[in-house]
Amino acid sequence: MIINPGSTRMRASTAAIADPGRLTDFLDDSGAAFLKGRDGFIALGEMARLDDVTMATADQWWREFSARIENETEMPEAFGTGPIAYGSFVYDPARSGQCSCLVVPEVVVGRREGRCWVTRLGYDSVDPVLPERRTAPPPPLGLSFGPGEETGHEETSQEWIDRFNRIRGLIDEGRADRIVLLRQLTARAEGRLDPRWVLRQWRMNYGGSWTYLVGGLVGATPEVMVRRSGGLNVSRILAGSVQPLGGPDEAARIARLLSDGDRLRQHRRAVDAAAEGLRPFMRGMHVPEQPFALALPDGLNLATDICGAASPGHSALALAAALHPLASVTGSPVEAAREIIRTEGTTDRGRFGAPVGWIDAQGDGEWFAALRPCQIEDDGVVRLYASATASASTSAHDKLVSTQVKLDQMRGLLTGR
To answer: In terms of pTM, does the model score above 0.90?
Structure first.
């Protein structure tokens, strides 16, 4: 879909503004958001939209589309300002009932490092004024959890354990080292569930992560696939974790994680796979030898920041496409793990673990792995996803428990408890 009255040229106008307060106050129930703390932006309206599109096609289309936009700005060179496109992609389009999308919004209200702005797109004269503030989102009514006639079959705990053990048998045969499996929890609300409510709950409870809202997909992720700014790129890779911290033994748990040989090997495989995917697109790249410990509300993670300079002509979206799918959400080796997921996995992954993010007219932008996702459908159906990694040394029962903890946490947030 492209909104275009005749041959009139599209214009974008960006104005610096005083701090507008909470950005979510401007968000309507069909808008988009990428937020971390006070930074980020919300987006409203649609000037153009692509559905069921590949990352390569979306990248080429945006390159051509953005080149035709007349851009006037009070904030030249400020990261994230001016015309942008945001989107979300499906993990495996051939095996999903969901579809990818790329959207060019009409209005963006943003804040980054204390600088605030509003960007508007339109035709002829464009006035970059703030949109109106919205009423607070209502909590969901009558949420019920579990399979039903409308949601179809959902794996029982025993069925999931059986599948886990079958896949672990393939690992024992040498088909792969690790496979990331999913569990799904389905809910239904009475009427439409406002995605802004879910965004609010995720923002309140997943500090340290980027929260996102795109087309009914709400989540929180600490994993930055690509942050490209002026040709400089940072990718934050997470793999290897332990359960939530707290108490006097926190320092000891951090030390144990940083010396855990199995988790360190798992993490290194994920980092090496990401570096291999990025290398053809980079002029130079630094890959640290050792990870650091990243503490999040739901656990402690091994993390590595891969830094480098992208070769000319490769956008943030192109770099994200080169990294997808990440080993941290798939397994290792990536292609072997992906093939096993295709043949043995029963859960439609939808947009779990796939790129979600934004790109500007210069090809800069941020793309994240869609983690802790909640998929909201128009008919009131809600799907929550949690992952667990199968390896030769893992217990199906232990991983069942760990995914249940994650699902229970999201379930509590969804109900406001």
So the answer is: yes
- Tell me what the mean pLDDT of segment 345-370 comes to: 93
Q: How far apart are CA 221 and CA 233, in angstroms?
A: 18
Is 10-132+144-415 in CATH node 3.60.120.10?
yes
Query: pLDDT tens digits, residue range 291-311?
Result: 999 988 777 889 999 999 999
Please state the three-class secondary structure of the chain as a single string: CECCCCCCCEEEEEEEECCCCCHHHHCCCCCEEEEECCEEEEEECCCEEEECCCHHHHHHHHHHHHCCCEEEECCCCCCCCCCEEEEECCCCHHHCCCCCEEEECCEEEEEECCEEEEEEEEECCCCCCCCCCCCCCCCCCCCEECCCCCCCCCCCHHHHHHHHHHHHHHHHCCCCCEEEEEEEEEEECCCCCCHHHHHHHHHHHCCCCEEEEECCEEEEECCEEEEEECCEEEEEEEEEEECCCCCCCHHHHHHHHHCCHHHHHHHHHHHHHHHHHHHHHEEEEECCCCCEEEEECCEEEEEEEEEEEECCCCCHHHHHHHHCCCHHHHEECHHHHHHHHHHHCCCCCCCCCCEEEEEECCCCEEEEECCCCEEECCCCEEEEEEEEEECCCCCHHHHHHHHHHHHHHHHHHHHCC
Q: What is the DSSP letter of 375?
A: E
- Which tokens hold the place of 228? 């490209």
Residue type, 354: A
The domain limits of the chain are 10-132+144-415
Q: How far is 352 from 346, CA to CA, in rounded Å?
A: 14
| pLDDT score, position 259 | 86
Please state the rounded mean pLDDT for residues 311-334.
Answer: 94
Q: How far apart are CA 228 and CA 287, in angstroms?
A: 16
User: How does pLDDT run across 61-112, given as a tens digit for each residue?
Assistant: 999 999 999 999 999 889 999 999 999 999 999 888 889 999 999 999 999 9
Tell me which DSSP letter residue 294 carries: E
- Whether omega before 93 lies within 30 degrees of 0, making that bond cis, reads no
User: Are 20 and 109 contacting, i.e. CB atoms less than 8 angstroms apart?
Assistant: yes
Q: Over range 370-393, report the average pLDDT.
A: 90
Q: Mean pLDDT across the stretch 142-162? A: 72
How large is the greatest C-alpha to C-alpha distance in the chain, in angstroms?
Answer: 67
Across 136-145, average pLDDT: 88
Mean pLDDT, residues 17-32 taken together: 95
User: The tokens 């994650």 sit on which residue?
Assistant: 406
